[in-house]
Each structure stands twice: as C-alpha cells, then as structure tokens.
Amino acid sequence: MSLKQIENILSEKLNDLKVKGTFKGDKKVITGIIEAKDGFGPRYLLVGHGEKEFLRMNSNSYLGLSLNKDVIQTEEDTARRFGAGPGAVRFISGTYAPHVKLEERLARFHNRESAMVFSSAYSTVMGVLPQFITEETLVVSDELNHNCIINAIRLSKPAKKAIYRHLDMTELESILKENMSQAKRVLVITDGIFSMRGDYAPLDRIAEICKRHETGYEEGVITVVDDSHGVGAFGKTGRGTEEYTGAKADILVATLGKALGVNGGYVVSGKAVINYLRETAPFYIYSNPITPSEAGAAIKALEILDSHEGIKLLERLKRLTVHLREGLNQLGYETISGEHPIVPLMVRDTQKTSEMVKYLFDNDILATGLNFPVVPKGDEEIRFQVSASHTERDIDYLLNILKRFKEGR
Hints:
With 409 residues, the protein is of the alpha/beta class. The chain is 42% helix and 16% strand. The protein has 15 helices and 15 strands. The chain has helices at 4-20, 69-82, 90-94, 97-109, 121-128, 147-156, 169-178, 203-213, 240-245, 271-280, 282-285, 292-305, 308-330, 350-362, 392-406, and strands at residues 30-34, 43-46, 55-56, 114-118, 137-142, 160-164, 185-191, 221-226, 251-255, 265-269, 334-335, 342-346, 365-366, 368-370, 381-385. It has a 7-stranded mixed sheet with strand order 4-10-9-8-7-5-6, with helices on both faces. A 4-stranded antiparallel sheet has the order 11-12-15-14, with helices on one face. Strand 8 (221-226), helix 9 and strand 9 form a beta-alpha-beta unit. It is globular. The protein starts with a helix and ends with a helix.
C-alpha cells in the first residue's frame, strides 16, 4: 500500500487552492494571553514572534466570556466532578447532568419548548436540515448563507433548490409564488447575522411572506435560522436577530462557541421537532457531545448573559462598535452600517486587502482579510470583530494604525 499515486494529485489540488486565493496556509498559533492592563484589553502571544503582544480584532468571543474567571472556574470544577471527556455518545452513556441542564436553560432563554446540544454549530446545521428535507421539498436560501447551510442542502438532495439575492424579499416571495405546485414542503433558510458583513436577515418580513404562502404547500413553509453570530451579540438582551426584528423562526440554530465563549452548537424548537431530531440526526447520534465541563461553562456563560452583568456587557459592546464604525467613517474608510460587532472595512481590492492585513500584523494587530473568491469580486474586505473585552484605547490604537496606513505609513 502506498500514497505515492495520489500525492501528486493532492499537490495539484493544493496548488489550485493557492491560485484561487482560498489556500489558508500556516496558522498563527497562540502561545499565551497577557491580561488587560494600562487601559488596554488582553494581548496575545504567537509562535515565532517572541514577546510581541498582539491586539486580537478577529475573535468571535464578542462578550469576552472565554476569559471570564467565573466561566473558567466553573469549567474546572465541572471537569473535576465529571472528568475530562464524556466517554460515549449521548444515547449510550455520554449524557451527563450538565448536558440536560444546559438544554433546559437554552430552551428557556429562547422561549422554546425544547433544545438539543451538538458538538458544534456547523454539525448542528448539518444534522438538522437533512431531517426536514425530502424528495418533495423546496429549499429556499439567501445567496450569502454560511458554508454549513450550503453543504447541508447538498447533503439533503431536495426536490428543488432556489437561491434569492441577498436580503431580496421581493425575490423570496416570487419564489414561493412560482413553486406552489412543485413541492409539498418548503424550507426557507437564512443566516441571522451574515458573518462576512455583519448585516442581518429581516426575520419579521420573512415570517410575513412565509405565512402568506404556507397554505399553498401541503406540508407548509418552515423557517430555519442560523443565528450563531447573533445570539449573545445582538439585541437588547442578547437574544439575537429574533429579538432585534421581533420575529421567531420555526427552528433556530446557534452556537456556544462565539459570544458565549465556550464550545458547541445547539438547536431550539418545539418538543416534537427536538424529539424527532434526537432519534434521527446522525451528527448528534453518532458523535460525542461537548464535554460535561464545557456544558457547565456554557451554563455559567448563559447565566451571565441573562443577567444585569450581561446587559452591561452588551451595552459596552455596542458603544465600542459605534466607536469603531464612526472612527472608520471619519478616516474616510468605507464600511457597512449596522449595530452588530462585525465591522467590515470594505477595501474592494484583493492586493490592497492583503497589504493592509500585513500592515496591521506588522503593527501588532490580528485581523482577517476576505478576498475573492471567499467574497464576490469587488467586495474584498477586512473583517474586524469587536469584543466587550476591548477598550476604547484598543479601538483608538487600531484607528491610529489605519490612519497611518491611509497617510502612506
């Protein structure tokens, strides 16, 4: 047995990724975290860069809860009580008390009958969608939906798939009108917050449109929302795009690994839906769950979010986000308006985006550049992500570096 025959093929495929601009290359490895001091937030140490301290502007930990001492302590205490790992899948002997308690808390937080935890939000979407897509189902999806939604639809092989232009509600309604005789069931699927841009789906309008046309389909129109970037970072109490728009999805997916700062994904819905998924979703049935200690930490993070402390963190996050957006505008940079802590700096040029990311890195700032074909040509950007662990001095430091870049260093 040998891999020699396939190694050349694999090398060619890797070269193709480099040519296309989607090759990710070596990772920046974090070796340590310097606690906040002198009016600045935490700084990060990287392999190969000695004691150089980096400001992290590309983290999903929007509330800074991954570094919260109470969350960390809870995870340590739970690990001592239940061990380092679950040791089995849920339906054998891998369900621990913290898993059950977390699901109860998530259902209550989202005002749903039931909740179910997966190993990640990606696996949640991959596990949930195929269970509701049959050979007689029309799937309708926003063109900028996350990769997990795209792959879950591919896995499902629906009767028909329709893509509407980003946030185009007129096209969504046209699709539902035109396909009434061609499917028994419809799944309308969207991100809540779109991860590349920080804009949001108008769930209130989507719900109205779906309700108007549900009688045209024998098995109705089901709305599914992945609000992984919204929950904990958007809405007055952190309940995400649903709270912001005043509308609820039939099935809501989100994550424990972004604003809540831990790990894992989950789905909330009616009891019948969740009971069905527990018996049919392979990504749940055949995969180990998150560890009991991660579940315990997620419970603590959720308690913090759903408290006065959480409200203060959300208010702080909003202030810092406004500060960054206003600062970018004052410097003459283009961004996308909104309230979410994803703040894209629209560069609209691949080479310049790469140059800016390198300049930021050389000036101790970690930021993510998004180039074609990850984003459409002309939409190249640097995606900044604000965290409640940042300070005004952090944002001012970033803006000062961007000002120097604009002025020619």
